[in-house]
From TrEMBL:
Protein name in the entry: NADP-dependent oxidoreductase domain superfamily
Organism this protein belongs to: Arabidopsis suecica (Swedish thale-cress)
PANTHER family: NADP-DEPENDENT OXIDOREDUCTASE DOMAIN-CONTAINING PROTEIN (PTHR43147:SF2), PROTEIN TAS (PTHR43147)
Domain NADP-dependent oxidoreductase: start-end pairs: 64-365
Family annotation (InterPro entries): NADP_OxRdtase_dom
Amino acid sequence: MPVSVHSVIATNLATTVSSNRFHRNVSRRKISSSSVKCSVETAEADRWVKLKNGNDSLEICRVLNGMWQTSGGWGRIDRNDAVDAMLRHADAGLSTFDMADHYGPAEDLYGIFINRVRRERPPEYLEKIKGLTKWVPPPIKMTSSYVRQNIDISRKRMDVAALDMLQFHWWDYANDGYLDALKHLTDLKEEGKIKTVALTNFDTERLQKILENGIPVVSNQVQHSIVDMRPQQRMAQLCELTGVKLITYGTVMGGLLSEKFLDTNLTIPFAGPRLNTPSLQKYKRMVDAWGGWNLFQGLLRTMKSISTKHGVSIPTVAVRYVLDQQGVGGSMIGVRLGLAEHIQDANAIFSLVLDEEDVNSIQEVTKKGKNLLQVIGDCGDEYRRI
Protein backbone atom coordinates (compact mmCIF):
# COMPACT_ATOMS: atom_id res chain seq x y z
CA MET A 1 0.00 0.00 0.00
CA PRO A 2 1.45 3.46 -0.91
CA VAL A 3 2.64 5.51 2.03
CA SER A 4 1.08 8.95 2.45
CA VAL A 5 3.52 11.69 3.40
CA HIS A 6 0.70 13.47 5.15
CA SER A 7 0.03 10.46 7.33
CA VAL A 8 3.74 10.09 8.00
CA ILE A 9 4.09 13.56 9.42
CA ALA A 10 0.99 13.37 11.56
CA THR A 11 1.39 14.99 14.93
CA ASN A 12 0.56 11.89 16.93
CA LEU A 13 3.34 9.89 15.27
CA ALA A 14 5.91 12.61 15.85
CA THR A 15 4.83 12.95 19.47
CA THR A 16 5.00 9.20 20.05
CA VAL A 17 8.46 8.90 18.51
CA SER A 18 9.75 11.90 20.46
CA SER A 19 8.42 10.41 23.69
CA ASN A 20 9.99 7.04 22.91
CA ARG A 21 13.34 8.66 22.19
CA PHE A 22 13.20 10.54 25.51
CA HIS A 23 12.47 7.33 27.41
CA ARG A 24 15.31 5.55 25.62
CA ASN A 25 17.68 8.30 26.74
CA VAL A 26 16.39 8.06 30.31
CA SER A 27 16.93 4.30 30.20
CA ARG A 28 20.49 4.77 28.95
CA ARG A 29 21.18 7.23 31.77
CA LYS A 30 19.96 4.79 34.40
CA ILE A 31 22.03 1.96 33.00
CA SER A 32 25.20 4.00 32.53
CA SER A 33 25.06 5.36 36.06
CA SER A 34 24.70 1.94 37.70
CA SER A 35 28.26 0.73 37.20
CA VAL A 36 31.33 1.00 35.00
CA LYS A 37 30.57 -2.42 33.53
CA CYS A 38 27.05 -1.40 32.56
CA SER A 39 28.39 1.82 31.06
CA VAL A 40 30.74 -0.11 28.81
CA GLU A 41 28.00 -2.55 27.79
CA THR A 42 25.62 0.30 26.97
CA ALA A 43 28.25 2.03 24.86
CA GLU A 44 29.02 -1.15 22.94
CA ALA A 45 25.33 -1.81 22.29
CA ASP A 46 25.03 1.72 20.90
CA ARG A 47 28.03 1.23 18.60
CA TRP A 48 26.20 -0.90 16.04
CA VAL A 49 23.04 -0.49 13.99
CA LYS A 50 21.42 -2.88 11.54
CA LEU A 51 20.16 -1.22 8.36
CA LYS A 52 17.31 -3.32 7.05
CA ASN A 53 14.61 -3.51 4.40
CA GLY A 54 12.85 -6.82 3.86
CA ASN A 55 15.44 -9.57 3.55
CA ASP A 56 18.30 -7.10 3.02
CA SER A 57 20.34 -6.01 6.02
CA LEU A 58 23.77 -4.65 6.89
CA GLU A 59 25.24 -4.01 10.34
CA ILE A 60 27.46 -0.94 10.50
CA CYS A 61 29.20 1.16 13.13
CA ARG A 62 27.02 4.15 14.04
CA VAL A 63 29.99 6.51 13.73
CA LEU A 64 31.28 6.22 10.18
CA ASN A 65 34.68 7.24 8.84
CA GLY A 66 33.98 9.66 5.99
CA MET A 67 36.56 9.61 3.20
CA TRP A 68 35.60 12.74 1.21
CA GLN A 69 38.79 14.22 2.66
CA THR A 70 40.91 11.93 0.47
CA SER A 71 39.71 13.68 -2.68
CA GLY A 72 42.03 16.71 -2.42
CA GLY A 73 41.69 20.08 -0.72
CA TRP A 74 42.51 18.88 2.81
CA GLY A 75 46.21 18.18 2.36
CA ARG A 76 48.27 15.62 0.49
CA ILE A 77 47.36 12.04 1.36
CA ASP A 78 50.18 9.50 1.50
CA ARG A 79 48.87 6.07 0.50
CA ASN A 80 50.75 4.03 3.10
CA ASP A 81 50.05 6.50 5.91
CA ALA A 82 46.38 6.56 4.94
CA VAL A 83 46.02 2.78 5.03
CA ASP A 84 47.84 2.61 8.36
CA ALA A 85 45.37 5.18 9.70
CA MET A 86 42.42 3.15 8.41
CA LEU A 87 43.75 0.15 10.35
CA ARG A 88 44.07 2.23 13.51
CA HIS A 89 40.45 3.35 13.18
CA ALA A 90 39.27 -0.21 12.62
CA ASP A 91 41.37 -1.51 15.52
CA ALA A 92 39.64 1.08 17.72
CA GLY A 93 36.21 -0.26 16.71
CA LEU A 94 35.50 2.41 14.08
CA SER A 95 35.13 -0.16 11.35
CA THR A 96 32.76 1.41 8.79
CA PHE A 97 34.18 3.50 5.95
CA ASP A 98 32.16 5.72 3.63
CA MET A 99 33.45 6.73 0.21
CA ALA A 100 32.36 7.43 -3.36
CA ASP A 101 33.39 6.79 -6.93
CA HIS A 102 34.46 10.45 -7.22
CA TYR A 103 36.35 10.81 -3.91
CA GLY A 104 39.77 10.67 -5.54
CA PRO A 105 41.63 7.49 -4.45
CA ALA A 106 39.13 6.56 -1.69
CA GLU A 107 37.94 3.29 -3.24
CA ASP A 108 41.51 2.29 -4.14
CA LEU A 109 42.68 2.98 -0.59
CA TYR A 110 39.89 0.79 0.72
CA GLY A 111 41.01 -2.01 -1.61
CA ILE A 112 44.56 -1.85 -0.22
CA PHE A 113 43.21 -1.62 3.33
CA ILE A 114 40.85 -4.60 3.04
CA ASN A 115 43.66 -6.76 1.69
CA ARG A 116 45.82 -5.86 4.66
CA VAL A 117 42.94 -6.80 6.93
CA ARG A 118 42.63 -10.16 5.14
CA ARG A 119 46.34 -10.82 5.64
CA GLU A 120 46.94 -9.35 9.09
CA ARG A 121 43.70 -9.74 11.06
CA PRO A 122 41.52 -12.74 12.04
CA PRO A 123 38.35 -13.66 10.07
CA GLU A 124 36.01 -12.39 12.81
CA TYR A 125 37.70 -8.96 12.54
CA LEU A 126 37.10 -8.89 8.78
CA GLU A 127 33.38 -9.50 9.33
CA LYS A 128 33.08 -6.20 11.18
CA ILE A 129 34.67 -4.14 8.39
CA LYS A 130 32.16 -2.43 6.12
CA GLY A 131 32.85 -0.36 3.02
CA LEU A 132 30.01 1.88 1.84
CA THR A 133 30.43 3.61 -1.50
CA LYS A 134 28.39 5.91 -3.70
CA TRP A 135 27.66 6.08 -7.38
CA VAL A 136 26.99 9.58 -8.78
CA PRO A 137 26.26 9.21 -12.50
CA PRO A 138 25.24 11.94 -14.94
CA PRO A 139 21.46 12.01 -15.53
CA ILE A 140 21.58 10.07 -18.80
CA LYS A 141 19.73 6.94 -19.93
CA MET A 142 20.27 4.24 -17.33
CA THR A 143 20.70 0.94 -19.17
CA SER A 144 21.47 -2.32 -17.42
CA SER A 145 24.89 -2.56 -19.08
CA TYR A 146 25.83 1.01 -18.10
CA VAL A 147 24.89 0.48 -14.47
CA ARG A 148 26.67 -2.89 -14.35
CA GLN A 149 29.84 -1.46 -15.90
CA ASN A 150 30.07 1.31 -13.30
CA ILE A 151 29.39 -0.96 -10.34
CA ASP A 152 32.05 -3.36 -11.59
CA ILE A 153 34.55 -0.49 -11.54
CA SER A 154 33.89 0.13 -7.85
CA ARG A 155 34.04 -3.60 -7.07
CA LYS A 156 37.43 -3.82 -8.77
CA ARG A 157 38.83 -0.71 -7.08
CA MET A 158 37.65 -1.85 -3.63
CA ASP A 159 38.73 -5.44 -4.38
CA VAL A 160 35.49 -7.01 -3.17
CA ALA A 161 33.18 -9.56 -4.80
CA ALA A 162 30.15 -7.65 -3.50
CA LEU A 163 29.82 -4.05 -2.39
CA ASP A 164 28.54 -3.88 1.19
CA MET A 165 26.40 -0.91 0.22
CA LEU A 166 25.86 1.12 -2.92
CA GLN A 167 24.44 4.58 -2.19
CA PHE A 168 22.89 6.17 -5.28
CA HIS A 169 22.72 9.89 -6.08
CA TRP A 170 20.71 11.53 -8.88
CA TRP A 171 21.07 15.12 -10.04
CA ASP A 172 17.80 15.83 -11.88
CA TYR A 173 14.37 14.81 -10.58
CA ALA A 174 12.77 15.94 -13.87
CA ASN A 175 14.46 12.87 -15.36
CA ASP A 176 12.94 9.80 -13.72
CA GLY A 177 15.79 7.63 -14.97
CA TYR A 178 16.76 7.26 -11.33
CA LEU A 179 14.03 4.61 -11.01
CA ASP A 180 15.56 2.64 -13.90
CA ALA A 181 19.00 2.89 -12.30
CA LEU A 182 17.70 1.68 -8.95
CA LYS A 183 15.91 -1.26 -10.53
CA HIS A 184 19.14 -2.26 -12.27
CA LEU A 185 21.02 -1.89 -8.99
CA THR A 186 18.42 -4.13 -7.34
CA ASP A 187 19.05 -6.73 -10.06
CA LEU A 188 22.78 -6.57 -9.30
CA LYS A 189 21.95 -7.06 -5.64
CA GLU A 190 20.01 -10.20 -6.53
CA GLU A 191 23.08 -11.38 -8.47
CA GLY A 192 25.25 -10.96 -5.38
CA LYS A 193 27.30 -7.99 -6.61
CA ILE A 194 25.76 -5.58 -4.08
CA LYS A 195 24.64 -6.50 -0.56
CA THR A 196 22.41 -3.48 0.11
CA VAL A 197 21.05 -0.63 -2.01
CA ALA A 198 20.77 2.84 -0.48
CA LEU A 199 20.37 6.49 -1.43
CA THR A 200 22.22 9.72 -0.87
CA ASN A 201 20.75 13.23 -0.96
CA PHE A 202 17.23 12.22 -2.00
CA ASP A 203 14.31 14.26 -0.68
CA THR A 204 11.25 12.93 1.13
CA GLU A 205 8.97 12.94 -1.89
CA ARG A 206 11.37 10.93 -4.05
CA LEU A 207 12.24 8.52 -1.21
CA GLN A 208 8.54 7.75 -0.87
CA LYS A 209 8.21 7.24 -4.63
CA ILE A 210 11.20 4.89 -4.68
CA LEU A 211 9.77 2.80 -1.84
CA GLU A 212 6.38 2.68 -3.57
CA ASN A 213 8.15 1.26 -6.63
CA GLY A 214 9.39 -1.65 -4.55
CA ILE A 215 13.06 -0.64 -4.38
CA PRO A 216 14.38 -2.06 -1.07
CA VAL A 217 16.62 0.85 0.00
CA VAL A 218 17.94 0.56 3.56
CA SER A 219 19.16 4.13 4.13
CA ASN A 220 19.40 7.66 2.80
CA GLN A 221 22.55 9.69 3.44
CA VAL A 222 21.75 13.36 4.06
CA GLN A 223 23.22 16.52 5.55
CA HIS A 224 22.20 16.80 9.21
CA SER A 225 23.66 18.76 12.11
CA ILE A 226 22.55 20.78 15.12
CA VAL A 227 22.38 23.73 12.72
CA ASP A 228 20.78 21.85 9.82
CA MET A 229 17.77 20.03 11.27
CA ARG A 230 15.87 19.75 7.97
CA PRO A 231 15.79 15.92 8.06
CA GLN A 232 13.70 16.06 11.23
CA GLN A 233 10.93 18.08 9.61
CA ARG A 234 9.76 15.59 6.97
CA MET A 235 12.28 12.90 6.14
CA ALA A 236 12.67 11.38 9.61
CA GLN A 237 8.96 10.69 10.01
CA LEU A 238 8.87 8.75 6.74
CA CYS A 239 11.96 6.85 7.82
CA GLU A 240 10.38 6.02 11.18
CA LEU A 241 7.31 4.63 9.44
CA THR A 242 9.15 2.62 6.78
CA GLY A 243 12.27 1.52 8.67
CA VAL A 244 14.67 3.31 6.31
CA LYS A 245 17.55 4.81 8.31
CA LEU A 246 19.31 8.13 7.89
CA ILE A 247 23.09 8.27 7.63
CA THR A 248 24.17 11.83 8.29
CA TYR A 249 27.09 13.87 7.07
CA GLY A 250 28.13 17.44 7.85
CA THR A 251 27.37 16.61 11.47
CA VAL A 252 30.42 18.49 12.80
CA MET A 253 30.17 20.96 9.90
CA GLY A 254 33.65 20.30 8.56
CA GLY A 255 35.13 21.15 11.96
CA LEU A 256 33.23 24.40 12.59
CA LEU A 257 31.48 22.69 15.49
CA SER A 258 34.68 22.48 17.52
CA GLU A 259 36.77 24.31 20.10
CA LYS A 260 38.94 25.66 17.30
CA PHE A 261 36.25 28.11 16.20
CA LEU A 262 34.96 29.06 19.66
CA ASP A 263 35.34 32.80 20.43
CA THR A 264 36.63 33.64 16.98
CA ASN A 265 35.70 36.53 14.70
CA LEU A 266 35.86 35.64 11.03
CA THR A 267 34.79 39.13 9.94
CA ILE A 268 38.28 40.47 10.71
CA PRO A 269 40.83 39.31 8.10
CA PHE A 270 43.47 36.94 9.49
CA ALA A 271 42.03 37.25 13.03
CA GLY A 272 40.59 33.75 13.21
CA PRO A 273 41.26 30.25 11.85
CA ARG A 274 41.36 30.01 8.08
CA LEU A 275 38.49 28.41 6.21
CA ASN A 276 41.02 26.52 4.13
CA THR A 277 39.16 23.31 3.23
CA PRO A 278 36.15 22.67 0.96
CA SER A 279 34.11 21.42 3.94
CA LEU A 280 34.81 24.49 6.11
CA GLN A 281 33.81 26.77 3.25
CA LYS A 282 30.68 24.75 2.52
CA TYR A 283 29.41 24.71 6.09
CA LYS A 284 30.28 28.35 6.74
CA ARG A 285 27.71 29.10 4.03
CA MET A 286 25.23 26.99 6.01
CA VAL A 287 25.98 29.03 9.14
CA ASP A 288 25.34 32.23 7.18
CA ALA A 289 22.02 30.88 5.88
CA TRP A 290 21.00 29.70 9.36
CA GLY A 291 21.67 32.80 11.43
CA GLY A 292 25.19 34.14 11.08
CA TRP A 293 28.45 33.92 12.98
CA ASN A 294 27.31 35.66 16.16
CA LEU A 295 24.45 33.21 16.72
CA PHE A 296 26.80 30.35 15.88
CA GLN A 297 29.19 31.57 18.58
CA GLY A 298 26.32 31.39 21.06
CA LEU A 299 25.74 27.79 20.02
CA LEU A 300 29.44 26.95 20.43
CA ARG A 301 29.51 28.48 23.90
CA THR A 302 26.49 26.40 24.92
CA MET A 303 28.07 23.25 23.50
CA LYS A 304 31.35 24.02 25.25
CA SER A 305 29.50 24.19 28.57
CA ILE A 306 27.89 20.82 27.87
CA SER A 307 31.13 19.23 26.71
CA THR A 308 32.95 20.43 29.85
CA LYS A 309 30.17 19.04 32.02
CA HIS A 310 30.58 15.58 30.45
CA GLY A 311 34.36 15.67 29.97
CA VAL A 312 34.20 15.38 26.18
CA SER A 313 34.78 17.63 23.16
CA ILE A 314 32.33 19.86 21.27
CA PRO A 315 32.38 17.55 18.20
CA THR A 316 31.49 14.61 20.44
CA VAL A 317 28.43 16.50 21.70
CA ALA A 318 27.51 17.50 18.13
CA VAL A 319 27.49 13.92 16.87
CA ARG A 320 25.71 12.51 19.92
CA TYR A 321 22.92 15.06 19.54
CA VAL A 322 22.29 14.03 15.94
CA LEU A 323 22.57 10.29 16.66
CA ASP A 324 19.76 10.75 19.19
CA GLN A 325 17.44 12.21 16.56
CA GLN A 326 14.52 10.35 15.04
CA GLY A 327 15.40 7.97 12.22
CA VAL A 328 19.17 8.44 12.45
CA GLY A 329 21.12 5.21 12.10
CA GLY A 330 24.64 6.60 11.85
CA SER A 331 26.65 9.81 11.56
CA MET A 332 29.76 10.60 9.60
CA ILE A 333 33.01 12.06 10.87
CA GLY A 334 35.42 13.03 8.11
CA VAL A 335 38.87 11.47 8.46
CA ARG A 336 42.05 13.13 7.18
CA LEU A 337 43.89 9.84 6.92
CA GLY A 338 47.52 10.11 7.94
CA LEU A 339 47.19 13.85 8.65
CA ALA A 340 44.98 14.11 11.75
CA GLU A 341 43.06 11.72 13.99
CA HIS A 342 40.16 12.04 16.42
CA ILE A 343 39.69 8.41 17.40
CA GLN A 344 39.30 9.11 21.12
CA ASP A 345 36.66 11.79 20.53
CA ALA A 346 34.80 9.48 18.15
CA ASN A 347 34.71 6.59 20.59
CA ALA A 348 33.54 8.89 23.39
CA ILE A 349 30.29 9.40 21.45
CA PHE A 350 29.04 5.92 22.34
CA SER A 351 29.14 6.43 26.11
CA LEU A 352 27.93 10.04 26.10
CA VAL A 353 24.32 10.56 27.22
CA LEU A 354 22.86 14.03 26.83
CA ASP A 355 20.30 14.80 29.53
CA GLU A 356 17.17 16.90 29.23
CA GLU A 357 18.98 20.01 30.45
CA ASP A 358 21.63 19.60 27.72
CA VAL A 359 19.04 19.19 24.99
CA ASN A 360 16.97 22.13 26.19
CA SER A 361 19.98 24.44 26.35
CA ILE A 362 20.94 23.56 22.77
CA GLN A 363 17.39 24.10 21.54
CA GLU A 364 17.20 27.47 23.28
CA VAL A 365 19.91 28.62 20.88
CA THR A 366 18.90 26.77 17.73
CA LYS A 367 15.30 28.05 17.86
CA LYS A 368 16.73 31.52 17.20
CA GLY A 369 18.07 30.38 13.83
CA LYS A 370 16.21 30.29 10.53
CA ASN A 371 14.26 27.27 9.36
CA LEU A 372 16.61 25.89 6.68
CA LEU A 373 13.79 23.85 5.16
CA GLN A 374 12.21 27.17 4.17
CA VAL A 375 15.53 28.72 3.14
CA ILE A 376 17.06 25.81 1.20
CA GLY A 377 14.36 23.18 0.75
CA ASP A 378 14.22 19.52 1.69
CA CYS A 379 17.18 17.18 2.06
CA GLY A 380 19.50 17.36 -0.94
CA ASP A 381 17.80 20.36 -2.53
CA GLU A 382 21.02 22.35 -2.11
CA TYR A 383 22.49 20.19 -4.91
CA ARG A 384 19.59 20.78 -7.31
CA ARG A 385 18.93 24.50 -7.05
CA ILE A 386 19.16 26.33 -10.35
